[in-house]
């Protein structure tokens, strides 16, 4: 068989998908490294001889009130007295305009431009750290949402300012334990307009009058929720804004002279009240600055900025309140609030414009240097340009200060220009989707899906020599990649790998598709027109309708939130479809006694009524088992925060966290029972097919490693569940066991898996007439593929399946006559019938145990359900194959139809949820990284891979076990079904999986087809979630639902394809071993 | 060829559809505060009661039901009893299937069972009317060559439409639109009713257009 060809094709397919995912994700998810340094008061930012402590200087303002009105769009804040018929949101905040016009030295109103993504959490991060948060801020701690970067709140705390917070509880998650006093209110319910606001208003004024605060942050949510619920143009919005107007007035009345008031929106909203995207309506909020003491040195003039970027708030507030600017801020101070040079006397203790700019520029430069040392995503030439600019400016500034002459206005302007260009560079790197890359990724993924589909349809032709090969596409890919690289080098001077990959992938896909099309038309000319692939009738048939529905469901946030149940629903529907379809074809019930048939006018049925009845019984029983495990698996789901009334499964918490001792014991006993049953079922299955007889490594693994592993697991659970204070004396021992047991289990797992890999044969050959069989004149050896070794087992089992190794073409008549005369085969081989599936089954079983180790103990029940469901699916597939007589019609028609493949891949997603996982970042089970490493790790590779294994456990198991779908109908084949069938000479004697060996070409093509079909279903899901992220990138839920879903779907696909490749490789490895075994047995008949 | 039978079928279906319509309109006139969403269970039982009564009456009058072999009162009584039993068992069956599909097990058991009753009266009852209490015959009808008469084909179409309607009716439940018809089991029962009505229209039409190709084996 063409092993390498299958493997290369699959590898190529996976690489195409991976390139598509890489390109899209590179354009969609912007990654930024978090710099974990903080600014301190001792930072030497001022030029001068003695390093003076920055924080000692008396600040311009002692206190500040930060009123954040969520989604306060700039349109809401303008006041137009000439507007006779204002809309619901217009002219509702007259206080701002009144103050600005009556006290111009005290107040100013600016548009306040946020950076995308315009969602509240990202914005809070933005205007407290001063940086441009991306979707993924790679920091040290992925698990919590707390901000670890340097930020304003942290700096306030460092200098001893008491920060009082009230309002949106997002702040409490972002800054845990950072506030002097905190009054969070639930922000989750978008329909609730008043809870947060009324909660704030209850406490705001009393707090302000008191003296227990230095910085007061109040975050109102009513306007935002009103926008989401009713849209901006609604009377409720008018009420809400009027209420805010009153709030601002009352706060202004209570301000003291040393206090600064900032009223701001964190983002705007579209005309429908949504936000999250990058349109100007969403990004432009309002900012209003006010102080009872004069704040601005000059009345509004031409030099005022038109728009204030949101990042600028951070350095401005920091310098006004006398704290260091947070380390990774890229903002620029708001110049009008600082007095120009020479006016410092009347503004007490303030910095001049130039000083503020200098401090700011120096801090930004320091951050840029640190960041470019850590990451390489800022283009090198712009970085060097910025550096040169800074050194020029700094020498100029220092010269000015040293000589004591008044600075030139150009210096301030060029410092400002420097800061602006830094921010623009950073924004270009971090805060902008790259639509071109997204489109390229989408196109590559779409073509990859199509290629995968074509590949699965043409698998047989591809395995034969005459079909379109892989060489041309690969050569085309290489050439296109090199061309792209050369083109980039000549045009831009540097090479971006992503585009080379894109060119390579696209060209090879297109070339393959074109060749396949030409090949297809040529084949059609030869064989006559064949059924088209994508007719509506085929698309609406349930096996393709269900994945279509599944893909469509990824485009709606509600369905993604309810994904676990949606997938279960679909699996159930498709499983019910199988018997209904069989009944529709009249294959489920034994045919009734028809006078026509009795007279022999119609061909007699292929299966005897008793066989049909038995197979239907198996089918229905397995369907029951499947439905039962589907239903039970629902009770292992975790809950998303969007699901209000949902209760997470009690099995999800580790045993050590359970307080009730009886419950703990019950859970433990249940888990150990499930584990025992898992082991027993695997061994039982292997023994039933006679795979436990030989002395190979795999059999050793099945006999001992499996057992030891389960004992290890049970002991480890017991040890980790013991409460810490109960056995004081044994504390050391327990500690040691917690360290050693999982490591022993890992070692055993590694041993078992490598044994399976090295010595995968589970065949036991027993020579009957050892001496005589060697002589050449005697009949060639024949053997049985039987089950047990004991005579009892032989009796119990099916008729020993006699498999004649010599094909008739090799045999001469004399030799076959000899066999008949002898009457007994010379060699009996036990377990030959399941030689391919047994190692794979054992592999999955061992792997499942290893993955179970990484889960909470009670998940053993869920894993048992997984095994049962796998078995049920396999048996349903086998029975329906037998009933529909697919194998009877033609020998070697091993093709696996769509229905079981779709079921198999949906079951992977279903058990992703049923093992307590969710496609959200907070739900990742970080505890898995500490199994066997209770004291943490030094590197990041090992914990990351442990967490990946834990998260995608069901994907791994189902993908690695995917080739079982090909073997199971053969394993469960009914002897009688082929009796009397003249399907070809050679198929006659081969039994069970030996039929695969007899038809190596069909074996390869069926394996390829199965894998590509599986990859197609998975890839279609990835494509759908990529589409969802691309289309809905302005959706309210994009950063909460779609982007995490995309990340999980994409990484799930990568993990699945890798384990699918492992599974297929294992099968091919077994095939190599089987060939070698035959060669050893019959040297002359080697293939 | 079967113009007569198709006409009979069309008029039967018109009567049944009218009964569904009346079952929606009449209680609205009689009962105060009646609405399809608000007092959903009442509507549901009124529809299933109406459909049950009208179908039994019409099919009995038309004489579709296969002739009984014996004519003793005891045999007829036992047939009646078995029919009622099957009706009830079918309710339980649908209830189980719906729960397995993910309906709440305990909280709204009454609503789920009511949906099962509705589904039974739209599907199983028709099987009972056409084939009598004979499960083997019911299963056999739903195969490609299982239809023995026009009425069997019609049975296939209406039952499939009803079940597909109920299945599709479950789709809007997870959406966050907060509409009154998303409450369990309103969307499913509406879906099955709409599917049933569609089936009532589609069956005679389909048979009419395919009458050239339809052949039935003799009984």
The residue fraction in helices of chain A comes out at: 55-70%
What is the name of the CATH architecture of the domain at 31-430 in chain A?
3-Layer(aba) Sandwich
Beta-strand percent range of chain B: under 5%
Q: Please compute the radius of gyration of chain B using only Cα atoms.
A: 18 Å
Query: Care to count the β-strands of chain A?
Result: 14
- CATH fold descriptor of the domain at 31-430 in chain A: Alkaline Phosphatase, subunit A
The largest β sheet of chain B comes out as:
none
* Protein chains sharing the most extensive interface: A-B, 24 and 16 residues
Beta-strand percentage range of chain A: 5-15%
Q: Spell out the helices and strands of chain B N to C.
A: HHHHHHHH
Q: Order of strands across the widest beta sheet of chain A?
A: 6-5-7-2-8-9-3-10
Question: What's the CATH H-level homologous superfamily of the domain at 31-430 in chain A?
Answer: Alkaline Phosphatase, subunit A
**Which bin fits the share of residues in helices of chain B?**
55-70%
Alpha-carbon distance between the two ends of chain A: 10 Å
Uncertain stretches of chain B: none
- Overall 3D form of chain B: globular
The largest β sheet of chain A comes out as:
8 strands, mixed
What is the helix tally of chain B? 8
Radius of gyration of chain A, whole Å: 36 Å
* Number of domain units of chain B: 1
